[in-house]
Amino acid sequence: MHTYHIHINGLVQGVGFRPFVCRIANSLQLNGWVSNTNTGVHIQFNASKEKAALFYNTIVDDPPPNAIITHHHFEKISPKIFNGFSIQQSNSKGKPDLLLTPDIALCSDCRAAILSATNKRFHYPFTTCLQCGPRYSIITTLPYDRANTTMSNLHMCPVCTLEYNDIHDRRHYSQTNSCKECAIPMHLYDAANHFICKDERDMHDTVVTSLAEGNVVAVKGIGGYLLLCDATNEIAIHTLRTRKHRAEKPLALLYADITMVQQDMQLRLFETDALKDKTAPIVLCRLKEDAANSICKEAIAPGLDKIGLMLPYTPLLLLISTAFGRPLIATSGNISGSPIIYKDEDALENLFEVADLVLTYDRDIVAPQDDSVVQFTNSGQKIILRRSRGLAPNYFPNPFIGMPATVLAMGGELKAAFALQDQHKLYISQFLGDQGTLESQTSYKETLSHLTKLLKANPEQIIIDKHPNYFVSQYGKLIADASDIPLLAVQHHKAHFGAVLAENNLLECNQRILGIIWDGTGYGDDCQIWGGEIFIYESHQMERAMHLDYFPQLLGDKMSREPRLSALSLLKNLPQYQYSIRDYFSNQEWDYYQQLLQQPAPLLTSSMGRLLDGIAAILGIRSYNNYEGEAAMQLEALARNCDINSGEFYSIRLVNDRIEWDVFLKELMEDHRQKIEPAAIAKKVFYSLAKMVQQLSCHFKMDQLAFSGGVFQNALLVDMLIELSGAEKQLYFHQQLSPNDECIGFGQLAYFSMLSQSHQQIISTNERIASEQFQTNH
Ligand SMILES: [Zn+2]
Ligand SMILES: [Zn+2]
């Protein structure tokens, strides 16, 4: 009999690892202990050499379903004698080196328990187990134990304690355990902020009745409050939109179960799988023509052909949606563009602007998260549109594992998400929204502070975007200055390219790779607004090889809100076609803009996003954007629903480092003049972009193509690219991250990694100059 030590690192807390180890130890009749620490799970035990190896291999080869093992180690140690096998008290010493467990959607066993009249947890709204429940959103310190969560002051009743201590129970050592006897207190308030004091069953009934009457109800979810209303009641949706100041941005739906979804949506297997996944994201799906529930499609997703929907990921949402029996609107509880509200006092202070009732409970949320959003192309390619609840904050496997320092990359501004490389682990924050409001900036700062404190991480290098006016860049510089740590500024589209390269493990690739980086806006190295960029990656070097020909950026950011301005700018040298957009402007505006266009443009743009906006305006789709990307999304929806496959495309010319689009636009305007249907033109536009990629690939004689930027959220374009690429080309898309600016933080790390691996002197010349430039600007 010998004594052994096993160390398991990775995502091993909050997934039932200790009870799992106990069960195996018991079945092998081993004595010893298992414990959670800040460096993972440690096990010591007595066994023969053969049994020890069997124990170790069983743990490593078949861990609990939600666990990820990044490192494991097994050794013989000096002899100790143990009696029985126990779970030892956790040890919180040292710096954490762990992946953080995301929140896990309600599991099928708990779901069945809640819906079974004979189960002790029948209709209990906080049912959880080892396989499901809140994790990241309630962890205040590590390691993961109830005392280190926001459930620390809620005590288990004797029956729950028995379950907790019973090695054969599926709630053995479940830190979030509770039942009706030791229930998490729930509270329902009405619009007058009166506490409606009834028992839980009455609260459900009141909420469901209120929803049926067309009211809006705010319900506390996992990462914050959700606003619910009847998705089949147009007036209720209109009320929600008016109160929320959200005119057209699509709203997500909550369905009680997959059967109800199947009655309404044309589900493909990958969409069904995604809906039922433990991350339970919002999945964009297509409505059936003969949908069973008469949901108000145009009120929910105006001008779009897909609707985002999800299944209940908490027991409370399951109970409400099941009792309601029809699809519900379920949108983030916030006020006009501010971040999701997650603190109870904020909810009660602010949400009555939107909601008639607020349902809350005494389990605090420490990490605000929206629902994650994904969609699939027709060929099944997954596109992440928002990465948050269930997916954040880990990124695994870590492509920067050799990076010696703790590096904080601040990310982008419009869809902010920071990335933190700490020891061997990589963390990418949840989506933190547009940093244009004070509330978003506060949320960003709080999330960053929460994660760095949780991990006891002290950044030794900060990376920011080059844009001098980004809040996230200024904040990064502030941190760097305050702690006297180095600052690196990385160009926006180079970060995008770095991100897609790193996601596909291509940083070390010895072939040349062409980067097609198309988005709305990013500050360029020449101080113009970039967004239609072609890069070449070779031997740890990245160069801008070509770009969409510049056109005037009218009135700065106003242009991204007004597609009519993009159209005007594009048609600057084509006065014969300007009639097509004349009606979008008053006489006064028209004169003003014509004068403006005659003057030398102070700022130019090569943005593909603005090109598509302009085309959407020309085709009469819309002249203003109510939300970011609206025109481009509607252009995509229009194109997708066109059955014509003419194979025709508009021409472009590649001249020096410019992609000239003037012929493209002239041909498009001729189609428009000849009254070709906008849907057919829209489809031809995207097909032309796919052909453009082919042309670029031939021009540069490169078959390895990587895509990043918000334009590649377009499922139709992605499918056209795949279809046209043939066998000889290799296409790389984002996998775990979104192609939009949420990948910028990760990409900044990739760029830093690339620089560190190539020539240190590059950092000391170009990039330092860039950083200095940034500093002198501010
Ligand atoms: Zn469960
Ligand atoms: Zn209990």
Describe this structure in words.
Strands 6, 7, 8, 9, 10, 11, 12, 13, 14, 15, 16 and 17 form a 12-stranded mixed beta sheet that branches. Strands 28-29-25-24-23-30-31 form a 7-stranded mixed beta sheet, sandwiched between helices. Strands 4-1-3-2-5 form a 5-stranded mixed beta sheet. Helix 14 crosses helix 23, helix 18 crosses helix 19 and helix 21 crosses helix 22. The termini are far apart. Helices cover 34% and strands 20% of the residues. With 778 residues, the chain is an alpha/beta fold. The structure holds zinc ion (2 copies). One zinc ion (ZN) binds next to helix 3.
User: Mean pLDDT, as a whole number?
Assistant: 94
Bound molecules: zinc ion
Q: Kindly, what is the distance between the CA atoms of the first and last residues, rounded to a whole number of angstroms?
A: 68 Å
Helix amount = 25-40%
Q: What is the 3D form? A: globular
Concise summary:
With 778 residues, the chain is of the alpha/beta class.
SSE blueprint:
Elements: E1 2-11, H1 17-27, E2 31-37, E3 40-47, H2 49-61, E4 68-77, E5 85-87, H3 108-115, H4 158-165, E6 186-190, E7 195-196, H5 200-212, E8 217-220, E9 225-230, H6 234-244, E10 253-254, H7 258-264, E11 265-266, H8 269-276, E12 282-287, H9 297-300, E13 307-310, H10 315-324, E14 328-332, H11 344-350, E15 357-361, E16 373-376, E17 382-386, E18 407-409, E19 419-422, E20 425-428, H12 438-455, E21 461-465, H13 471-483, E22 487-490, H14 492-503, E23 513-523, E24 529-538, E25 541-548, E26 551-552, H15 558-561, H16 563-570, H17 587-598, E27 604-605, H18 608-618, H19 630-640, E28 653-655, E29 658-660, H20 662-673, H21 678-700, E30 704-708, H22 715-725, E31 730-732, H23 744-757, H24 760-777
Parallel strand pairs: 2-5, 8-15, 10-13, 12-16, 18-21, 21-22, 23-30, 25-29, 30-31
Antiparallel strand pairs: 1-3, 1-4, 2-3, 6-7, 6-15, 8-9, 9-14, 10-14, 11-12, 12-13, 16-17, 18-19, 19-20, 23-24, 24-25, 26-27, 28-29
The structure holds zinc ion (2 copies).
Residues 107, 109-110, 128-129, 131-132 line the site of one zinc ion.
